[in-house]
Amino acid sequence: MPRPTYLWYSLRKVRYPVRMKRDQQKERQARMGKGLCKFCIQPRILGHKQLCEKHYVTNAVQWAIGRCDNQVTKIFLERFYANPICPYTGQTLILGINAHLDHIESRKNRPDLAKELTNLEWVSEQANLAKNGMSKNEFIQFCSLIASLNHSP
């Protein structure tokens, strides 16, 4: 006895996205096994298990401001390569290893600037974690205070 059309249609509608997702996962695993980005065919960046530099930057910007497109990714890649030095520590920044995007004015203190592209800068991981919720000026003053108290004559 043949299946009723409405049932067949509903089963096909449910199964197709599941099969498609499974196929996409297999493709991603195959690319990653070859040392490629899980989203494209570009080589992964040093120090990252899954992403090329474009997708690493895209993820970093999306996490920082909640949105990102190809133009924004290009802007932040250009900013990174224009000056890959941490403004706080002077360390050379390497995508996937020690480069983090940081809000110059913290989201906590200035929520109005939280989604502004001009409020983001590349810094080292250590500086970003130490800075936490401070603004750039507060952090520099804090570091100066520590340095002055620990200065041995």
Helices, strands, pairings?
Blueprint: H1 5-33, H2 53-65, H3 70-82, E1 99-103, E2 120-124, H4 125-131, H5 136-149
Antiparallel strand pairs: 1-2
Helix pairs in contact: 2-3
β-strand percent reads: 5-15%
Total beta strands: 2
Tell me the helix content: 40-55%
Discrete helix count: 5
What's the overall geometry?
Answer: elongated
How is the main sheet built? 2 strands, antiparallel
* Oligomeric grouping of the chains: single chain
Over all CA atoms, what is the radius of gyration?
22 Å
Extract low-pLDDT stretches: 4-9
H/E element string? HHHEEHH
Key structural traits:
single chain; two-stranded antiparallel sheet; mainly alpha; 153 residues; elongated
Task: Describe this protein's structure.
The protein has 153 residues and is mostly helical. The chain contains 5 helices and 2 strands. It has a two-stranded antiparallel sheet with strand order 1-2. Helix 2 packs across helix 3. The chain is elongated and about 60 Å long.
Brief account:
This protein has 153 residues and is mainly α. 50% of the residues lie in helices and 7% in strands.
